[in-house]
Specification:
- The structure holds 3 protein chains of 3 kinds.
- Chain A is an alpha/beta fold.
- Chain A folds into 2 domains: 206 residues, 3-Layer(aba) Sandwich (Rossmann fold); 148 residues, Rossmann fold, CATH 3.40.50.2300.
- Chain A contains 13 helices and 17 strands.
- By secondary structure, chain B is mostly helical.
- Chain B contains 12 helices and 2 strands, in the order αααααββααααααα.
- In chain B, β1 and β2 form a beta hairpin.
- In chain B, α2 packs parallel to α6 and α11 packs across α12.
- Chain B is globular, with a radius of gyration of 20 Å.
- Chain B starts with a helix and ends with a helix.
- By secondary structure, chain C is mainly α.
- The chains are: A alpha/beta, B mainly alpha, C mainly alpha.
- At the A-C interface, α1, β3, α3, α4 and α6 of A face α1, α2, α11 and α13 of C.
């Protein structure tokens, strides 16, 4: 008994040393940026886009010669863990990145709920974090100082679709106050904030919200909601539930032949609905943070279109906005390091806060709460199997087809 | 409660909700029947069920991407899973057949997370779905819509279930499986190679799941980590139905499917899952109370 | 050396390791604290699973109940919980250090009360179930708990419940929670040792070995079963309260009522070490946790494959647990009790 336990204890005691030894990192001429992303679990599709976006940008920055900080050139390196789409996992992994791997800079995980789980950690250690994929407004109201987000907040995702509906209603002679809104929203911090945005927009336009369902976790079946949609005949149906939700909504709305004048959702390009659901995805409106047709440029990637073709060459599929915003987050770090001229976390934090730059992804400038206010949201519509920007008018490359013709 | 009124305003909706529930329930019935078979014959609760379903879906998806008709992918998926099931039996399951039921839950849970991750490594994390190429039927002024894929799946589920029943009744192997389920030791004494019977049972279960997965990828969307949903669902159905017979399993599957859909319709989709699991606990406790009463009579 | 003497040395060594661990490797303090939580989960699972023969997949319910009970008390003492947890809330809710500690203390007090209440309430119904129906019923209970918490807006629904932030430096916080977890772990262990040594332990074993016979002999089986579950709930609830605060965010399905992770892991750990023994769950928890952490660090992308293999391996090759295996292999080390515990 004794010998056995003593041996076990000895073996166990040795392990942490081995672990810390291997994790101690070279600060020679590389800067290590850490991230936990969802490679498995319910967010694995979007997590993969995030990882691709981070890695492409790191590679690009290094290929372009690295970053000059205080007269010396550094290469970027990214240290990744798999958070398994789990709130419990992600917090402990980020803590590990900071405490054991001595990472001083963190790139955000995929999704608002996972980010909400790690911000207490990064704040506690005063470690700057740039979130590329967490848009829920609840993240920006807690007075966090070291968290910054390159993307527009989630309430803006689909509220523009509601505004667009009101506008179209007026054009076709229908009062917005007689219009009905139906939605099926995923049950997490992101989609709930998308929902809050829709509720605000509906109220502003005097519309009536007739169906307001929350879909549990995996978002694999909404037929009960759709049966009601069919009965109440709303003017718009909105859905949000990450990549799985987009695919499910597209498929089931088509199967049930739901005929709504406007059908809008989030994460269409992440789920690749235009490519994978040819025909039945026609006319769907999609909220997007970015589009490859935009005219923005930067010194690393060139134009938005260049980014898209490089991404496609590297990974074999069109760049979804989740990847673009992830790449942009890396660029913000690169820019901030150069301006701070040091790797002191406080100095880098201040440099990030003072960011005012144009990237292929759009303009980036943070307000006091850390969210990017310099960049608008976009609405795509699937037309002839392609995503085209239909709103806002400034960026539109095609005219909105309204009402949607049910395929 | 406006939702309830909605049902009375438009009775055709009742038909819609009922149909949705029943058609989907029939596919769950397949996976559930496989589970009941393995449970009854081998005394193993197979938590890997959901992963078999997902794997079947992915095989069908790949076969379809080679240009095969989606419906021909069903036998392909079933055949592939037959092999997988047999291999897993030979590798792992044969060691736990005569162990405590509880051991099997843990072992197959381990296998489940392993398979899910392998699917993720092979096919990637993308959401997958397959277009069956079928349309939708309209009834009652368009108020009731039925996707033909779902009807096809319903029919196929019944056909597969019927074929299984005939197989168990009429073939030599089928009879051996039933004999083993009734009394493994006696079956062995009578010269039945129970190890082979177990291998066949487990492989057949995997094949059924594979077929169910091929149907599911046409109706829903699949992602490597959704397996647990299907495991839990089959489990539910088996518990409600009991291990006895195919008819009860199909009945329970359709019933649970319909009940769940009505709950979703009336109270909102967010309460579906909570309903299903509370229902499970209630069924168990009620059944137990009945048993207790019987025990009291005996005293 | 006598078995007793060996035990003393062992206990002293372990105590020394407990104190030394966070001082020697401060970077791993939080992982060590989590390890203690895992040990508590495995130990308390074994009360029913090992000693009483009732395999529960639902003990995680008490983990979640404890977490939420503590959180509600901690926040509710000073602020309106509903407004605090609102997803789109914009208010700022500060806590002074004093408020934090008072809240935490009362929260940790409330957690086991709530958990025991739930256990007593559910116990009579659930513990009537026998064999695998009990396992299945508790499995449903765990998932239903998560779904219920996720649809309860007052505690933040699916967005979760953010806990007050620890007032102090990181190192202090890590040590503080490590101390709490270690203390709770040691107390749990000692209490269980005491319980198993007395009549109560024997009554539980009687239920495991033949429940009907135990009943016929005049044991109050139902009362003992519910009592055992309450003991389990008491410590799991406490662990939940501490873990929730350590984690910072309570999410209903993955942190609080995490049936597919903590719920199954506690079973695996007890099984790995050897169920039905006092030391088994402790050893199992240590080995399992260390392997899991190593997989996640060094086998990125394959970590779940490795974990799956580990689980299958545990079940296939160590069904009696490491302790059971060692007992069969080196019976002389275990003295005269060798035959008894390994029976199941």
């Amino acid at each position: 008994m004794f010998r056995l336990l003593a041996a076990t204890l000895l073996a166990l005691a040795a392990i942490p040393f081995a672990a810390t030894g291997a994790a101690a990192q070279a600060q020679g001429d590389t800067i290590v940026v850490g991230a936990a992303v969802s490679l498995t679990g319910k967010f694995s599709t979007d997590g993969q886009h995030t990882k691709n976006g981070y890695e492409l940008a790191v590679k690009r920055v290094n290929d372009a010669g690295g970053i000059k900080v205080g007269g010396k050139t550094y290469k970027l390196e990214i240290k990744l863990y798999d958070d398994e789409s789990s709130n419990e996992r992600v917090a402990s992994l980020v803590e590990r990145l900071i405490v054991q791997d001595n990472v001083k800079f963190i790139l955000g995980p995929y999704s608002s709920p996972l980010t909400a789980a790690i911000i207490p950690v990064t704040e506690k250690f005063k470690i700057p974090m740039i979130q590329a994929n967490a848009a829920s407004r609840s993240l920006f109201t807690k007075g966090y100082r070291y968290a910054f987000a390159v993307l527009s907040t989630s309430d803006q995702y689909l509220s523009s679709a509601v505004d667009l509906l009101a506008e179209k209603g007026k054009e076709t002679g229908k009062q917005p106050s007689s219009m009905k809104v139906a939605m099926a929203m995923g049950d997490d911090a992101f989609s709930l904030d998308v929902r809050a945005g829709i509720l605000e927009a509906a109220k502003k336009n005097g519309m009536q919200v007739v169906i307001d369902d929350k879909v549990p976790d995996n978002f694999t079946d909404i037929s009960a909601t759709l049966a009601r949609v069919k009965a109440v005949k709303p003017d718009i149906f909105l859905a949000s539930g990450h990549a799985t939700g987009a695919a499910t909504a597209t498929k089931q709305v088509a199967d049930a032949k739901i005929d709504v004048p406007m059908f809008a959702m989030t994460h269409c390009d992440s789920a690749q609905i235009a490519e994978k659901f040819k025909g039945i995805s026609e006319g769907i409106l999609c909220a997007s943070q970015w589009a490859p047709t935009l005219s923005y440029k930067d010194k690393w990637f060139g134009s938005a279109g260049d980014y898209n073709s490089l991404f496609k060459k590297t990974y074999g599929y069109e760049a979804p906005y989740q990847a673009a915003e992830s790449s942009a987050a890396v660029l913000v770090f690169a820019d901030a390091f150069a301006r701070a001229g040091s790797f002191d976390t406080e100095k880098v934090r201040d440099a990030i806060a003072a960011t005012d730059m144009e990237t292929f992804y759009g303009h980036i400038k943070f307000d006091d709460t850390g969210k990017n206010i310099a960049k608008p949201m976009m609405l795509y519509q699937v037309q002839n199997g392609d995503y085209v920007v239909v709103a806002p008018t400034k960026f539109a490359t095609a005219k909105l087809i309204y009402p949607r013709k049910t395929p | 409660m406006t939702n309830l009124l909605l049902l009375f305003d438009a009775p055709s909706l009742i038909v819609q909700v009922l149909l949705d529930g029943i058609l989907v329930g029939s596919i769950f019935a397949l996976a559930a029947y496989g589970m009941a078979l393995v449970w009854g014959v081998m005394n193993i609760i197979n938590i890997t069920q959901g992963e078999f379903v997902v794997l079947g879906g992915y095989v069908a998806f790949t076969a379809a991407s080679w240009g095969l008709n989606p419906f021909l992918c069903i036998p392909v998926a079933a055949a592939a899973l037959l092999v997988v099931g047999w291999a897993i039996y030979r590798g792992v399951i044969y060691r736990i057949v005569d162990k405590d039921l509880f051991i099997s839950v843990l072992a197959t849970y381990g296998l489940g997370i392993l398979i899910a991750q392998l699917i993720n490594l092979v096919w990637g994390a993308d959401v997958r779905s397959l277009d069956s190429g079928l349309g939708t039927w309209f009834f009652l002024d368009g108020m009731v819509t039925v996707a033909q894929t779902r009807v096809a799946a319903f029919v196929l589920a019944l056909v597969i279930g019927g074929a299984l029943l005939l197989f168990l009744r009429l073939t030599r192997l089928g009879r051996a499986i039933r004999a083993t389920a009734q009394n493994a030791r006696a079956a062995r004494a009578l010269g039945i190679d129970t190890d082979r019977v177990y291998a066949a049972t487990y492989a057949i279960n995997a094949a059924i799941c594979g077929a169910a997965g091929a149907l599911i990828v046409m109706i829903f969307v699949l992602q490597p980590f959704v397996g647990l949903i299907y495991t839990v669902r089959s489990f539910m159905i088996v518990i409600v139905a009991g291990l006895g017979n195919l008819g009860a399993v199909i009945g329970a599957a359709l019933g649970v499917g319909a009940a769940e859909n009505f709950v979703g319709f009336i109270f909102g989709t967010q309460f579906q899952a909570a309903f299903v699991f509370s229902f499970l606990v209630v069924v168990l406790v009620v059944r137990n109370l009945r048993l207790q009463r019987r025990r009291m009579y005996l005293k | 050396m006598s078995a007793r003497g060996r035990g003393r040395i062992l206990a002293a060594l372990l105590l020394a390791a407990t104190v030394a661990a966070p001082l020697v490797v401060p970077a791993l303090t939080v992982q060590f604290a989590t390890l203690w939580v895992m040990i508590i989960l495995a130990l308390t699972w074994d009360i029913l699973g090992g000693q009483m023969g009732y395999n529960s997949f639902g003990n995680v319910v008490f983990f979640g109940v404890g977490m939420y009970a503590s959180a509600i008390v901690q926040v509710g003492l000073f602020h309106d919980v509903g407004a605090y947890t609102a997803a789109s809330g914009t208010g700022v809710y500060p806590f002074t250090p004093q408020q934090y500690y008072v809240g935490l203390a009362l929260g940790i007090l409330a957690a086991p009360i709530a958990a025991v209440a739930v256990a007593a309430l559910l116990g009579t119904g659930m513990l009537g179930l026998r064999g695998h129906y009990f396992a299945i019923g508790t499995l449903g209970l765990g998932i239903a708990g998560g779904e219920f918490a996720a649809s309860w807006e007052y505690v933040g629904g699916a967005s979760g419940f953010l806990l007050p932030v620890f007032p102090g430096a990181y190192e202090t916080r890590a040590l503080f929670f490590y101390g709490l977890c270690a203390a709770l772990g040691i107390v749990t262990f000692l209490v269980l040792r005491r319980l198993y040594a007395g009549r109560f332990g024997l009554a539980l074993n009687a239920i495991r070995d033949d429940e009907d016979k135990a009943e016929a002999l005049g044991h109050h089986t139902v009362r003992n079963k519910v009592l055992a579950w309450c003991v389990s709930a008491f410590f799991v609830g406490l662990a939940g309260a501490i873990f929730g605060n350590m984690n910072g965010l309570i999410e209903p399905r993955e942190v609080a009522f995490s049936g597919a992770t903590f719920g199954v892991w506690m079973v695996l750990m007890a099984l790995l070490g050897g169920k039905g023994t006092l030391w088994g769950p402790v050893i199992g928890a240590i080995v399992f946790h260390v392997f899991k952490e190593l997989f996640w660090t060094y086998l990125l992308g394959w970590q779940r494959v490795a974990l799956g293999l580990l689980i299958v391996g545990i079940v296939l090759f160590f069904p009696l647990g490491l302790l059971g295996y060692a007992r069969e292999r080196w019976p002389s080390l275990f003295g005269r009790q060798a035959v008894e515990g390994a029976k199941r």
